[in-house]
Specification:
Elements (H helix, E strand, L loop, with lengths): L1 H12 L2 E2 L3 E6 L10 E7 L2 E10 L8 E9 L2 E5 L10 E5 L2 E5 L2 E3 L5 E3 L3 E5 L2 E5 L10 E5 L3 E5 L2 E2 L2 E2 L3 E5 L5 E3 L12 E5 L2 E5 L2 E4 L12 E4 L3 E7 L2 E10 L11 E4 L4 E5 L21 E8 L4 E12 L6 E3 L2 E5 L2 E2 L3 E2 L3 E6 L1
Amino acid sequence: MKTIGIFLLLLLAQPAVAATLLIEELPPLPQASSNNAVSAFRDNQGLHLISLLGLGSQKTPTAIHKQGFISSQGKWQKISVPGQPRLASAAANIGNSIYLLGGYTVADDGSEVSTPEVYRYQDGKWQTLRPMPVPVDDMVVLVYQQRYIYLVSGWHDVGNVNLVQVLDTRTGEWQQATPWPGEPVFGHAGAIFEDRMVVCDGVRIQYPQLNLGTEKKREFLSSPQCWLGEINKDDIRRINWQRLANHPGDARYRMVAAATDTGLLVFAGGSTNPYNYDGVGYNNKASVAEAEVFSYDLKADRWQVLGSLPQASMDHRGMIYDQGWFYLLGGMTNPQTVTDRVLRFKLD
């Protein structure tokens, strides 16, 4: 009996491989854009995809833009976006509203500043909301009960924070939830189903030890970690965090995730070599995008490899799920090429 039990445990620990993905190309964005905040909403005209802010093809500070685009019945239109041009913002959908949160600006001298602004887009108009208590960018943004927006960890000006900031979209109030239990990171990915979220990877900072006569800089390193957080239904500020087994393959930076309506959390793309916004790694090596798609099944408590995208992709700030389809808007393909590509895939 003991031998059988060990065998079963080993079997469950191995990621299974599913069938290939069904993939479709959609009309491209009006301009190539990477590191763009993406979201979507449905109304009586169907699904509207939205891309906000991001980085243009030249990948320089002047290529950081504040363009916004919305699709209507397969056609893209420009929309205005408030605030400054910025990167690493995030967007979230509640009802027919889109919330745009945070990000960072890049000055001509390369200095970066996290921004606290929060905006809501509804019926073609923007409304300025109460700013976040601690400005962050490259954070994970998750929606709970179609009311609360959770901002998990992320970068603030000079370093990562372990905060979990919660916006109540009905009252406009901010609260602090149970802190992120892992190494504080930026560029991580996560998804939520009902009251359970899974958040993985990102980039941690390793600070040099102080030794006389040496000059070492801090390092930006991959952080292979996955955590399951369960929100307390009686107190949305309380999260019970538990460490999960790592997903298949190496840790990823700026991959994306979204949840199906059955509790399957799907992760896609990213790079195993953390990089600056131009796609060049902090180790001065060109970063390579990944094509693999995998999932975490909350019911079966296991990771599963689902297949691969037709073209590797990284530098995303969100993935949309709607009626069985996952949508990717823009991003970077190999070699570090900002793209206007829009595709969707589903589990075949």
